[in-house]
Amino acid sequence: MARPAPIAPGPGQESVWDYPRPPRVEPSSEVVEIELGGQVVARTDRSWRVLETSHPPTYYLPRDAFVAGALRPAPGASVCEWKGLASYLDVVGPDRVASRAAWTYLDPTPGFAVIAGAVAVMPGLVDRCTVDGEPVVAQPGGFYGGWITSRVVGPFKGGPGTLSW
């Protein structure tokens, strides 16, 4: 399938088609919050964004951004061709558990060493994620963990017919 026509970014926006492949990681000072069960289970203004062609950013938060007891190991693992072996985590709220909604790279490849132990969350599996107060839309398809805000334009990989992009 041919590369789709990128949407032109407006002022203050980024096109995911300008992101690199292989991806890069960059620090972020945006305020990131994750809510589950009516409670903020994570909040930080120091995270990392992983940026990859055709994908909205995936945010990785330091473990200390999560409230005590909000993360617990979950079964399973997967391999990313760029970052290495991922371990899964459940996100635990006061009255709800989001099974395998988070993941971490304990020993990532050298280019991603800065996110070792940091935690990414699938926005579609928790109640709400925000970036600088703006609610996040989950990347389509349920497989990738990208966070869509008004600051990024696509089209985005993940939905039907996009896996060959």
From TrEMBL:
UniProt signal peptide? none
InterPro entries reported in the protein's UniProt record: DUF427, DUF427_sf
Q: Where is this region: Disordered?
A: 1-23
Give residue ranges for domain DUF427.
Answer: 32-123
Pfam families per record? NTP_transf_9
Protein name per the record: DUF427 domain-containing protein
**What organism is the protein native to?**
Cellulomonas carbonis T26
